[in-house]
Amino acid sequence: MPLEADDVREPEAQQQSLPGSEVIDFASASTQANTDASGKSGGMAVLKANSANCTVGAYADCYAQYIEFSPSYTGSLSFNLSSLTQAAPTPAQVTQLSLLTKYQGPGVAASYYQWQLYRFSTSSWVSIANSQGRGDWVWTPALTLALPTTEAASNFVSSTGEIRARIIKGAGTDAAQLDSLRLQVAWDISTTCTAETDAAFCARQGASCGQVTGTDNCGQARTVASCGACQSPQTCGGGGTPNVCGEASSCTVAAFPKGTTWMWDLEHNAIPTNLNAQVYVVDLFNTSTAKIQEYKTAGKKVVCYFSAGSYEDWREDANQFPQDTYCTPGENCAQSVHIMGDWCTAGGGCEWWLDHRKQGVRTVMTSRMQLAKNKGCDAVEPDNIDGYSHDDEINCTDQACWGLTAANQLEYNRWLATTAHSLCLGIALKNDVDQVPALADSFDFAINEECQRFNECGAYKTWFTNKNKAVFNAEYRKDSGGDITNWTSCTGTGATCACGESGFAQGDMRTLVFSTASVRYDNLQFTCW
User: Where is this chain compositionally biased, Basic and acidic residues type (predicted)?
Assistant: First the structure.
C-alpha cells in the first residue's frame, strides 16, 4: 500500500560533502638516466612500466623489477588531477597527498632516499620523508608518505592540476632500488543534494510497509516510520523485529542465552555431531544444507560465518561485488591499499577491505543472509565489521583506507542486524569491542577473539551477559602473528573458569583456547567452560 498523502515530505536541498580518494600513476617523468648495475636504465621514465610487472601480492619484494638509482641521483615525476577517474576536484578541493612507494636500499645518512613534493605557492620543494633509520637494505613494503598536516594540500597543486614529486638519492658508495612510486590524492567536494521523498526512499529500499531504516540518496542515515500498511501475506513485525515487514506470520529468532556452550570450526566442512557444545559455528559457504540439517537433528543450533567487511576473491559469489567496492577506481587491484595484510598469493587467495557504504556491498550481504536462511542456519556471524578502526589517513598498510567513520560502522552494523532479524536469523556481534555499548541491543549474542589476552572483556559482561546474552570467546596459544600466550588452564578466577578475566561468574563467558590460529574443533588446546 502506498504512503498516505500527508506522509510524503517535500524534498529538501542538503549541502553535503563528497569525499574521495584515488591512487594514480605519474603522467610524465624527468629524462635523467640512472647508472644501473643490473642493466636496467632510464631512471624515472621506465619506473611505471617495470613496477607494473610486480603483481604477486600487494607488498611483494619483486627484486627483478627494481630500478636502481645510483648515488647522487635526483629524479622527478609529474602527476595530474586529470588522471583521476572517480571525480573532478579542483586544486582547492584537494585535502591530502600521499606518496606510495616500495623500496630497499642503504639507510645510512650518507646514502639514503629522500621524497619531496613541490609547493607551487612558494615555488619550493618540501621534504616528506627519508629512508634514514628505516633499516639498511631492508625491504620496505607499501610505505605511505603523507603530506604533513601542517601543510595545505592545495598549495601543492598547480592551477592546471599538476602535482610534482621528487626522489633524491644521497651520495654514497651504493645504489638504492625502487619498486614503485605512485600518488594517492584525497579530496572533498561540496555539493548540493536534494533529498528524496519518503515514498521514493521506501521504493528504493524495496519496502511497501512498516518502518524502514537505511541510507538515502544523499548518503544520510534515514528512518521512515511507515512505508505503508501491510497487506496479506505481509506482516509487520516479520522476523520478530517491531515494525519490520516479513512474509506470512511473525517468527521467533533463536535465543542464545548466557551460558550456552559452543564450538567454532571454519575450516572443516563436516564435524562430529556429538561434540559437547549446544551451538556449532561453521562457514556459510563450505557447509552443505544437508550437513547443517544433520547438526540440527542432533540438537545443535547452527550459526553460519561469512565476512561482511571484506572481499574474498575465492568465494563463490565474488563476482557479485562491483570492483569499486573493494578497489579504488584507477589503481592496480593486485597492489591495492585496501588489501588486508601482506599474505596475498599468486593466482588468488587475497582479501580486500570493503567500502560498506556502497549499495553493491549490501546487496551481496542480503543475498548471503538469504542463503543462510535457505540452508537452515539459526543465526549468522558477520566478520570484519570494524573496518572503520582500520582506517588511517597516515598509513594504508593493512588498513581499510576508505574514509570510514565510526558513524558509518554503526549504521552498517545495525543494518546487518535488522536485515538478519527480518529473515528470522539471529546475529552475533563479532569483535568491534569499542562499539559494544552502542550495538549490543541490536545483536543477540557476541563472538570475540582474544579479549582475555588484551583485558577488554569487561564490556561484554556489562552489555551482554548482564542481559542474558551469550558471549563466545576464542583465545590462541599461538596467534596468526606468531605471538605465543602460555595458556595452561583457567587461571585467576579458578572454578569460575574465566581464564584470568575478573568479574565473570561461572558460565558467563564460554572460551575455546586453540593451539594455533587455525579455527577447527581438532585444534583445541582446551575449553574454558
Answer: 1-12
| Other Cβ atoms within 10 Å of 175 Cβ, number | 21
pLDDT digits (tens, 9 = 90+) for 363-401: 999 999 999 999 999 999 999 999 988 875 445 655 788
Average pLDDT of the chain to the nearest whole number: 80
Architecture of the 262-309+357-393+401-528 domain = Alpha-Beta Barrel (3.20)
Query: Cα(295)–Cα(234) distance, rounded to whole angstroms?
Result: 31
What does CATH list as the number for 18-191? 2.60.120.230
Residue 42: its pLDDT value, please?
62
Residue 500 has pLDDT above 70, yes or no: no
Considering only CA atoms, which of 148, 181, 166 is closest in space to residue 24?
181
Q: What are phi and psi of 439, to 5 degrees?
A: -110, -15
Element spanning 124, H or E = strand 124-130
CA 314 and chain centroid, separation? 17
pLDDT at 420 over 80: yes
CA distances to 148, 355, 386, 390, 391 from 399, rounded to whole Å, are 19, 12, 11, 5, 5
Tell the residue number behind the cell numbers 627519508, with chain if given.
Answer: 130
Under DSSP, the state recorded for 516 is S
Cis previous bond, 437, omega within 30: no
Lowest mean pLDDT among 171-180, 232-241, 482-491: 232-241
Q: According to the model, what pLDDT value does residue 2 have? A: 34
- State the amino acid at position 233 in one-letter form: P
Q: Where are the domains of the chain?
A: 18-191, 194-247, 262-309+357-393+401-528
Surface-to-core class of residue 414, CB atoms within 10 Å of its CB (0-12 exposed, 13-18 middle, 19+ buried): middle
| Sign of the torsion angle spanned by Cα atoms 317, 318, 323, 327 | positive
Closest CA to 192 of 19, 408, 12, 359: 12
Q: Three-class SS of residue 397?
A: coil
Rounded Cα gap, residues 292 and 47, in angstroms: 53
CA distance 364 to 454: 33
C-alpha closest to that of 426 among 380, 471, 390, 470 = 380
Closest CA to 143 of 202, 109, 101, 178: 101
Q: How far apart are alpha carbons 124 and 138 in whole angstroms?
A: 31
Q: What are the helix and strand counts (H, E) for the chain?
A: 7, 25
Between β-strands 234-236 and 245-247, what pairing exists: parallel, antiparallel or unpaired?
A: antiparallel
- The residues, any chain, with a CB within 8 Å of residue 206's CB and separated by 6 or more, are none
Q: How would residue 339 be classed by pLDDT, with cut points 50, 70 and 90?
A: confident
